[in-house]
Amino acid sequence: MHYKVTVVGAGNVGATTAQRIAEAELADVVMVDVLGDLATGKALDMMEAAPVLGFNARIEGGGDYAPTAGSDICVVTSGLARKPGMSRDDLVAKNTEIIREVTTQLVKYSPDTIIIMVTNPLDAMCEVARRVSGFPRERLIGMAGVLDAARMRWFIADALKASVEDVDAFVLGGHGDTMVPLPRYATVNGIPLPQLLPADTIEAINTRTRNGGAEIVNYYKQGSAYYAPSASVLDMVAAILHDKKKILPCAVYLQGEYGLKDLFVGVPAVLGRKGMERVIELELSADEKAQLQKSADAVADLVKSLPSF
Description:
The protein contains 10 helices and 14 strands. The chain is an alpha/beta fold and 309 residues long. A hairpin with a 2-residue loop joins strand 10 (187-188) and strand 11. The model has no long low-confidence stretch (mean pLDDT 95).
């Protein structure tokens, strides 16, 4: 079956995401940006790489949403990026305005699409898109946990000098400083992480995971991470289009799971052709539940700060 994926935003995250999807031949890609010529130019540049790399998926770019019509998945990366000293939460007002307009256009041309939100502050922007689109929770998912877990998995692999392919980990909660790494559920080729690393090393990994985005921002000076975020989006897009039923940590609109309701919070979920098909509820310790509640409270406060519309 031939698929179409729209990527909104031709900046570093959006363009790299479009490139990864096309090179993997998952779908044809339409890249849209307010700077239409930038999107057109980047798409052309990528297509000129196709003969060298040998992929046959097509990428087109521009400023018009009409070519996005009938998209199976729409990935939203547009918005302001963080600068050093800026939190994800600082982006709320401006990015709310952007996401409202983007979502309106996507729903107009692709009313049956699945939206993957990447723009920060992630959990709040998911709520903006939900209000505008009216989509059921199965078709509106935030990309956060895959990225946060990937960072944690790399830190674990690096500490153990182990293959990244052997490391699994989960991170729950909001995509911010209150996220909840779960080392108790992390494994290396099936071996629980607490049996492999001392508690102080694990806690250092947890802290670095929470600050993973800020660490990259501080190195870059201008802009934020895009290689790992785009790879994380690719994982989600592949799981959906190929109906993998893959369990990935994603921002999901919870309806009672984990004792939380009417909030987008990062939890393990099954992704398949219908989008988010099922939430996986892990057994949490009292401390883990408290941390998750604290993270959910932070998300709730951020949602309360959204402009009325």
